[in-house]
Structure formats: structure tokens, C-alpha cells
Amino acid sequence: MSNIPWQERPADSTDVIWRYDANPVVKRDAIPSSNSIFNSAVVEFDGGYAGVFRCDNKAVQMNIFAGFSKDGINWEINHDPISFQAGNTDMIESDYKYDPRVVFIEDRYWITWCNGYHGPTIGIGYTFDFKDFFQCENAFLPFNRNGVLFPEKIDGKYAMLSRPSDNGHTPFGDIYISYSPDMKYWGEHRCVMKVTPFTESAWQCTKIGAGPIPILTEEGWLTFYHGVINTCNGFRYSMGAAILDKDRPDKVLYRSKPYLLSPQTPYECMGDVPNVVFPCAALHSIEEDKVAIYYGAADTVTGLAFGRISEILKFVKENSL
Ligand code: BMA
């Protein structure tokens, strides 16, 4: 039995994804310096869980902090940000760090994040123990966001989803995949999926970006992503899911037309940036048919939501674009 956080679907709900009833799991002031803690990533570690948290401080500087938990719900987050040593490069410049993702591959935990280098691009680092951290070459030229690694090599190469962007509050964005033999040089860039026509699925018509690490299922890579619509009240971020081909993940097999989670609760609709659900991590157990999704809510706090993997796959297949 895994001990991933779990709550059964409420009796009165027919939703394919449902929220933890004591959300948010991480409050905005969980460490003394923080203005907000959101868009954060967790993984299984050392019999419990470790995480990399985006904590914006009270000068509203964006940085990433390590944290630890026995149950995935109660978190102790370090009061100082992660300090990186040089990894596969000496060039570890970073004006800011935000929106981390974490994945274990082979022998270590890899971290990707949005790294400030003349504008946002994808930073890469690794750790073995969540104590010492090593920073590698940026994956791409600026501007890019939402770099998400696959948990295993595909055809002998590391694979990463990303979203080329601009230097501001990007009003466009499609998901691409890139490959690397060594986590340093990235290429073979291919388009995976684009925004949808407004008339077909409006919640994802402005931009889309990969969320948690894709989950390998019998149907292919289950990939949660965020989709954005530009409304008269600004951007609104929801979550959908796609199923990508196991061996050729640039091939989308199914993609949800309805959203799976959208900003509806007070903590998702009110905060520093209202109307945002932004998934960055998922714990899962294929055997127990469970997934627990961590998401940033209103760019202020971190929420948790649950689903049954088999039901999500069925929903995405039956409600596909
Ligand atoms: C994106 C990123 C995310 C943020 C989102 C909504 O461009 O900055 O960190 O959650 O906007 O503000």
C-alpha cells in the first residue's frame, strides 16, 4: 500500500477530479518570509515526501525552497531558498526561479523551473538528497516556461515538454517536446499540441502549458496541463488532461474538451492573481488507481485534488477533442 494523500470522492459529487476538503495544504505564510507559496512540486522521498516550493517573498521576489513531509499534507518548508552549486556548467546565473517540477530519473531527482536569464527560460538542476543541489545548463534560449521532464528516457534520450513564450504575461502558447542525450544539449523540437479554437473548447483557447510529470499508463502518457482563456476579467487558468503515445509522445491520442478542474472555490478565485488553478505535481499509484494532484491556487496557496486514474483515462477518451 502506498501512503499517498487520499480522500474518497464526496458522496454528492460526480466530478472526475475532486478537491481535498481541508485545502489549501500549504498556506501563503507557511514560512516567515513568504508572501505566497504556490505552483510547487512534490515527490516520494526517503519513506515520505520532499518538495520544491515556489515561495515569493514579501519583496515579491520569486525563488524555490526545499520542503519535507511524512504524509504529503503537512509540510515543513526550509526558511532559506535552495542554493545551487555548479552542475554540468559554471553558468548558473539566475535572476529568479519559479514554477518548479521534480522527477526521479535513474539515480537522482531532477528539478526544472522557470529560470530568469535575460527573461524566463527553463533551468535544470539535480539533487540526490534535497540538501545539496546542482544547477545545469538552461535547456533553451529565452523565452520559455513550463519545462516538464518525462520520468524515463524515450528511445534512449531524456525528453522534456515546454512552452515557448515571451517576456511578459504571454498571450499565446503551445506545448512542444525536445530531446537530449545528456541533459545539457536539447534538440529534435516537435510540436505536441496547440491551443483550441474558441468555439470548440474555450477554456484552453489562449495558451496551454504542461503541468505535472506525465504518468505512464496502459493507454499512454497521462499528461495534466493548464489551459487559459483571456476573459474581460483577465486570464483564467484551468486544468485538462491529454494522453500521449507511449513511444512517440509528440503524438496526442486523446485530449479533454471539457476541463477537469477550474477555479471555483474562494481560494482559487481570490488571491494575488484571481482565477488560477495551476497543477505542477502529481503523486500516483497505478495499483491503487489513485492520483493526488498539487496545484497553485490564485498564485497564493497550494491545493490538493484527487482522482481515479482509470476514470480520468475513460473521461478523457470519451470527451476528447
Ligand atoms: C504564468 C506564470 C505562473 C502563474 C500564472 C498565473 O505566466 O507566471 O507562475 O501562476 O502566470 O498568474
Automatic annotation (TrEMBL):
GO MF annotations, alphabetized: glycosyltransferase activity
Keywords, comma-separated and alphabetical: Glycosyltransferase, Transferase
InterPro entries: Glyco_hydro_beta-prop_sf, Mannoside_phosphorylase
CDD domains associated with the record: GH130
PANTHER family listed in its UniProt record: 1,4-BETA-MANNOSYL-N-ACETYLGLUCOSAMINE PHOSPHORYLASE (PTHR34106:SF1), GLYCOSIDASE (PTHR34106)
Family named by the database record: Belongs to the glycosyl hydrolase 130 family.
Protein name as it appears in the record: Beta-1,4-mannooligosaccharide/beta-1,4-mannosyl-N-acetylglucosamine phosphorylase
Originating organism: Arenibacter nanhaiticus
